[in-house]
Amino acid sequence: MIFIHLILGIIFGTLYGYLPFILIGSIFPDIDHLYIIIKNKVYTPKKLIDSIKHEAKYRLRYKTQLVHSLLGLIIFSAIVLAFSKTGAMFFAIAYLSHLMIDWMDIDEKYYLYPFKVKFKGFLPIWSKFEQVVTIVALTAMIIILIK
Fold first, then answer.
1. Whole-number average pLDDT of the chain
2. The model's pTM
3. Of 25, 60, 82, 141, which shows the fewest CB atoms inside 10 Å?
């Protein structure tokens, strides 16, 4: 779910307050994507999009075991906790929602890292379903921001 994390972060941050914590928590787990892009020099837009859709073809995994796991949620939420107790709660909820949404994606995830238990969803990356959900969420976000 490529854009849905950002859109939902904006929606829930606007509705419930604590926008910075919710927004960062909702997109932070994808920080590992930047690491994979830089490490593997996936710099052209065409190669980036194709490698995200077809990770096996490029022998890449954009979701690293630590960051896309409950252990990552605990570690990074603990860091936020050092700054704000309430903010850390919203950050952790947004982070967890990111992991739950990613569960639907077809690529492999290790949510129980360091245990080697694989989780794999059923939706191809940027599927028609994901596109429709993104458009609906984007429409909702615009309506909420206008009001």
1. 94
2. 0.91
3. 82
